[in-house]
Design a protein that fits this description.
With 272 residues, this protein is α/β, with parallel strands linked by helices. The protein has helices at 18-29, 41-51, 68-82, 105-133, 154-174, 192-199, 204-213, 223-234, 258-264, 266-269; strands at residues 9-13, 33-38, 57-62, 87-90, 136-141, 179-186, 189-190, 221-222, 245-248. The strands form two sheets. It has a seven-stranded parallel β-sheet with strand order 3-2-1-4-5-6-9, sandwiched between helices. The chain has a two-stranded parallel sheet with strand order 7-8.
Length: 272
């Protein structure tokens, strides 16, 4: 089956860069009219202009995803321009580091507001338009940290766990309305967020190399590889899939004890 989104309208939050931009490009190339929701006006306009070529339809709608009024306004503006919404990719997110003691309350509120509340808000305002269209597809971008955790990332881990719960709850609430809701859970992906995180180290290149070794495939992923999975879940090819969490992690969560244990633990010791 060839995927064709001609006549469909998609909203992608955090669509100005990284996984979001890669997803916008793929959706637009497959015929969808795509609305980029992002707080970064310069990057958003640049991405939309770059994508809206050769007949592709893409526009930028400035939006702080954590502010209800801004989300409502952006959704209504997109509906006014395109006539409705069929696909929502809730991708906007940030990363901040700290445990429950060292994380300032304002950092907790900001991260949860963008990563989790932002998904709630955009879904809140998009779902009624999907119902009017007779259904739709929502793809939420979680993380391997929707299922596990790393240290010193309490707010991020909590937000990504929350997104998986939100996926499952909405999939039940709207299944009879023809709306499918699924979650993509990436491993380490080469995005501006990863490069920023690596830059916090004295040796960013070593961080990237170590991240690659955490995956059985031996490398970090690409944004377009995650976008492929998002497009699949948004398409008719996934018509009987809802409430699912799709790992796009290069096998990261497969090995017991992690890849380091595989190199020196009991499993590795059996290979002579």
């Amino acid at each position: 089956m060839n995927i064709d989104f001609t006549g469909k309208v998609a909203v992608v939050t955090g669509g100005a860069m990284g996984i979001g931009e890669a997803t916008v490009r793929k959706l637009a190339a497959l015929g969808a009219a795509v609305a980029i929701f992002d707080i970064d006006a310069d990057a958003g306009r640049k991405s939309a202009a770059s994508i809206a070529t050769n007949g592709a339809i893409c526009d930028f709608f400035p939006c702080n995803i954590s502010v209800s009024a801004e989300v409502s306004h952006a959704v209504e503006a997109a509906v006014s321009k395109y006539g409705g919404i069929d696909i929502l990719v809730s991708n906007a997110g940030i990363q901040l580091y700290g445990d429950v003691v060292t994380t300032p309350e304002e950092d907790w509120d900001r991260l949860i507001g963008i990563n989790l509340k932002g998904c709630f808000l955009v879904s809140k305002f998009v779902v009624p338009h999907m119902i009017r269209r007779g259904g739709g597809a929502i793809v939420i971008v979680g993380s391997v940290q929707s299922m596990t955790a790393i240290s010193n990332s309490v707010a991020y881990v909590a937000s990504k766990h929350g997104l998986l719960g939100l996926t499952r709850a909405m999939s039940l609430d709207y299944a009879q309305k023809g709306i499918r809701v699924n979650c993509v859970c990436p491993g380490t992906i080469d995005t501006p967020m990863l490069r920023w995180a690596a830059s916090l180290s004295d040796d960013p290149a070593k961080v990237i190399q170590t991240c690659g070794r955490m995956h059985p495939l031996g490398r970090i992923g690409r944004a377009d590889e995650v976008a492929d999975s998002i497009v699949y879940l948004a398409s008719p090819m996934a018509s009987f899939i809802t409430g699912a969490a799709l790992l796009v992690d290069g096998g990261m969560l497969v090995p017991a004890g992690g890849m380091g244990f595989q190199e020196g633990g009991t499993g590795a010791a059996t290979h002579k």
